[in-house]
Amino acid sequence: MKKKKSADQLTSFIFEHKEDFYRLAYSYVKNSEDALDIVQESIQKAIVAKDFVKNPLSIKSWFYKIVVNTSLDYLRKSKKITLVNDETLDFFSSGTEDVYQNIDLKRSLEELPLKYRTVIILRYFEDLKIEDIASILSEKVSTVKTRLYKALELLRIKMQ
């Protein structure tokens, strides 16, 4: 009975947040078909590994980690690293929409190394907590904080 309950929790969680996962995958690959493939592959991986989730409260960071790792695997295989543009992100965003487009910010963000871009995306576009980001990226909280600080500093320099 417990396994059915965990499977039901996983299914409902994925269904409720499918747009977020798609947006996250799209932010890496900038292609709707590839993003859908990444989400589908992530769901398959999650279903296979659902019995390894020890704490049902950690499903969110666990699944985000799967999506991030699947996206990075895809990028390694295809050798292309891109970031979503603001219009597309606004279109798929379930949050509030900006009424302006900051082209300089978009360019500066695209120029950041992947490890800094990932932290920015997860923190500010996906609105995840530092602890969740650390879990997703399998890094220490202090490492994530350092990367976030460095990424913001690099963005500030590029924007000037």
UniProtKB/TrEMBL annotation:
Keywords: Sigma factor, Transcription, Transcription regulation. Residues 105-155 form the RNA polymerase sigma factor 70 region 4 type domain. The keyword Repeat does not apply. Belongs to the sigma-70 factor family. ECF subfamily. The lineage of its organism: Bacteria, Bacillati, Bacillota, Bacilli, Bacillales. SUPFAM superfamilies: Sigma2 domain of RNA polymerase sigma factors, Sigma3 and sigma4 domains of RNA polymerase sigma factors. Residues 16-80 form the RNA polymerase sigma-70 region domain. This is Sigma-70 family RNA polymerase sigma factor. InterPro entries: RNA_pol_sigma-70-like, RNA_pol_sigma-70_dom, RNA_pol_sigma70_r2, RNA_pol_sigma70_r4_t2, RNA_pol_sigma_r2, RNA_pol_sigma_r3/r4-like, WH-like_DNA-bd_sf. It holds the Pfam family Sigma70_r4_2.
